[in-house]
Amino acid sequence: QVQLVESGGGLVQPGGSLRLSCVASRSTLDYYTIGWFRQAPGEAREGVACISNKDGSTYYADSVKGRFTISRDNAKNTVDLQMNSLKPEDTAVYYCSVDEEGWGTCLWGDYWGQGTQVTVSS
Known about the structure:
The chain has 122 residues and is mainly beta. 0% of the residues lie in helices and 48% in strands.
């Protein structure tokens, strides 16, 4: 098992930036993928940005392409999400997750952090 802890959420104005960070209790290189999901009120949880451990490829949801960037530091067991040009529709709880079962990149996860709230509002 692995424990995941997110940080960096908050309130930001439209057009602003935030950087989320996720720290894992151990190396996540033996999982299929690691990444970020989000869930807005009344909506299903969706994959936002993920990294495949198989080949290092990245996946981004269409709604965040060109605005969000996922990165990782294997030495520190961290994965970050840089979010720029934020929009009100980015408002959600953001979760860090790893895929142990092989659900598919950014389709689902098996271990989750507690989540961090991101609110984009003027």
